[in-house]
Amino acid sequence: MGSIHVSQLGKAYKQYPGRWSRLLEWVTPFLGQRHRLKWVLQDIDFHIAAGESVALIGVNGAGKSTLLKLITGTAQPTTGAVTTHGRVAALLELGMGFHPDFTGRQNAVMAGQLIGLSVEEVTALMPGIEAFAEIGDYIDQPVRVYSSGMQVRLAFAVATAVRPDILVIDEALAVGDVFFQQKCYERIRAYCQAGTTLLFVSHAMGAVYSLCNRAILISAGRVALDSSPREVIDLYNAHVLHQREGKAPPPAPVRTATAEPGSDAAGRAADGSASRQAPADSSAPVAAPEAATVPEPAGTPPTASATTAADATAPSTVGSFAHGGATLDAVGLYVDDQPAATIVSDRVATVRVESRFAQGYADPHIGFQIRNARGEAVFMTNTYCMGQRIGPVAPGEAVRAEFSFKASLAPGDYTITAGVAEGGAGEGDFRQTLARQQDASAFTVLRNLDAIVWSGVCNLDPICELQRQAPAC
Ligand SMILES: Nc1ncnc2c1ncn2[C@@H]1O[C@H](COP(=O)(O)OP(=O)(O)OP(=O)(O)O)[C@@H](O)[C@H]1O
C-alpha cells in the first residue's frame, strides 16, 4: 500500500547574474560563489497515508509541480527528505519520459520498464494500453508527430496499465478532451476505491472535490493549509481574489490537519519504498520565493461527496472580507417575501442582498453565489452580468438587490455567498471587491413530490417525446 512522507522539504535553484557567471564560478571556485539561491519550496511537512486522495492546490508558480518532482524523484531536494512506500506511477510534465524519435509502442515499452514492468509484461498489456489510449495507427508512429492530447492519452494509458500503489498526476488530464478525461477519472476513481493513494495537482476544483478527500494549499513555496477540500479551496479562492487585487494572501484558519510521522528508511527498498534526502551540505533558505501570476479559480460539477451537509451550513470566514468601501448588512433567502430556511425544489425563491456604501462609487455591482454541501458553486451571477446597472452611488447610500429564480436544485443543503464590487465585471476586466461574505446564509432544498423523478445537480425540466415505428413485415 502506498504512503508518502515529506519532512522539512525544501528546494532552491541557483540563480546567476549573467551568462558567464556559472562557468566563471566553476573554473574559479576560489573566487567565491557567484550565484544566489532562489527558494521555491521551504519547510514542507506532511504525511499521506495509504489510500488517501490528496490534492495539491495553489496559484501558478506556487511550487506544486516542483513538489511532485521531488516526491517522484525526478528532482532532488535541497533540504529535507521524501519517503514513499509502494510502486509510484506518475504523470508529470507533458511528454516527459517519451523519446520523440521512438514510436508510441516503443515508448510504451520503455515507460513500462521505468515503472518496473518487464518487456513481456508490457507486451501482454499492450492491447489494453492501445484500447485505452485510442490513438489508432499512431501507436506505430514516432511520438514527435503526436498532438499533445495524443501524448497524454498514451502516457496515462501506460502509467495506469497496472494499478499503482501511488498515483501522482500533475494537471496532465487538462490536455485531453472531455470524453478522455471522463475515462481517466473513472479509472482513477476505480483505483482509489481499490486502495491506490492519489496525489493530484489541478486547477479544476470540480475534479478536486470529485476525487480527493484532503487538500493541501501551497502558497509561495510553503504549506498554507492542509485540510478538507472545501476549506482549502475556500482559502485558495480567497488567495486568488487577494492577489488579483494586489493584497497579501489571507491567513489560514487556525485548525489544520496534523501530519503523521512516517518511516524515514533511506534508499529504495524491495517493496518499492524510496527515500530522497537533501545532501548534507544544503544551506539554509536565504530568500523567499517570488509571487506568481494568478489563474481564475475553476469549478465544474463533480459527483462524489467529500463533506457532509452539516459542513455546508457551518459559517466560513475564510473567503469573507471587507474592503471598507461597502458593508453587507443582510443576505438571505426569501419565499413569498418571507425569510426562508427551506424551499421545495422548483419553487420560486429570492436571494436578497442589502449593502451600504461607505463612499461614492461610479459603477458598483452586487452579486451572489449558491454553493452546495461540498462547497461547489452551483450558480453565481451579479447585477452587472444581468444587465442591471446600479449606477453611481453616494457615500452612505444603501442598495438592496433581489435576485428571483426558480430553485430547480437537487434536494440538499446550500449556502449563499454575497459580494459587492466596483468596476468592470466582464471577462478580464479589473474589479475591486468592496465586501464579500462567504456562506452568509444557508437553506435546505426539499424534494418536490409533484416533479418528475430525477437525480443530478439541477432539474432541467425536460420535455420527452417518443416516436415509435412498427416493424416492417
Ligand atoms: N529549473 C528551475 N530553475 C529555476 N526556477 C525554477 C525552475 N523550475 C521551477 N522554477 C520556479 O519555481 C517556482 C515554482 O514552480 P512550479 O512549476 O513548481 O509551480 P506550480 O505551482 O506548479 O505552478 P503552475 O500551477 O503554473 O504549474 C516558480 O517560480 C518557477 O519559476
Automatic annotation (TrEMBL):
<feature type="domain" description="ABC transporter">
    <location>
        <begin position="4"/>
        <end position="245"/>
    </location>
</feature>
<dbReference type="InterPro" id="IPR029439">
    <property type="entry name" value="Wzt_C"/>
</dbReference>
<feature type="compositionally biased region" description="Low complexity">
    <location>
        <begin position="254"/>
        <end position="311"/>
    </location>
</feature>
<dbReference type="InterPro" id="IPR017871">
    <property type="entry name" value="ABC_transporter-like_CS"/>
</dbReference>
<dbReference type="InterPro" id="IPR003593">
    <property type="entry name" value="AAA+_ATPase"/>
</dbReference>
<dbReference type="GO" id="GO:0140359">
    <property type="term" value="F:ABC-type transporter activity"/>
</dbReference>
<dbReference type="GO" id="GO:0016020">
    <property type="term" value="C:membrane"/>
</dbReference>
<protein>
    <submittedName>
        <fullName>Wzt carbohydrate-binding domain-containing protein</fullName>
    </submittedName>
</protein>
<keyword id="KW-0813">Transport</keyword>
<keyword id="KW-0067">ATP-binding</keyword>
<dbReference type="Pfam" id="PF00005">
    <property type="entry name" value="ABC_tran"/>
</dbReference>
<comment type="similarity">
    <text>Belongs to the ABC transporter superfamily.</text>
</comment>
<keyword id="KW-0472">Membrane</keyword>
<dbReference type="InterPro" id="IPR050683">
    <property type="entry name" value="Bact_Polysacc_Export_ATP-bd"/>
</dbReference>
<dbReference type="InterPro" id="IPR027417">
    <property type="entry name" value="P-loop_NTPase"/>
</dbReference>
<dbReference type="Pfam" id="PF14524">
    <property type="entry name" value="Wzt_C"/>
</dbReference>
<dbReference type="GO" id="GO:0005524">
    <property type="term" value="F:ATP binding"/>
</dbReference>
<feature type="region of interest" description="Disordered">
    <location>
        <begin position="244"/>
        <end position="311"/>
    </location>
</feature>
<keyword id="KW-0547">Nucleotide-binding</keyword>
<dbReference type="InterPro" id="IPR003439">
    <property type="entry name" value="ABC_transporter-like_ATP-bd"/>
</dbReference>
<dbReference type="InterPro" id="IPR015860">
    <property type="entry name" value="ABC_transpr_TagH-like"/>
</dbReference>
<dbReference type="GO" id="GO:0016887">
    <property type="term" value="F:ATP hydrolysis activity"/>
</dbReference>
<keyword id="KW-1003">Cell membrane</keyword>
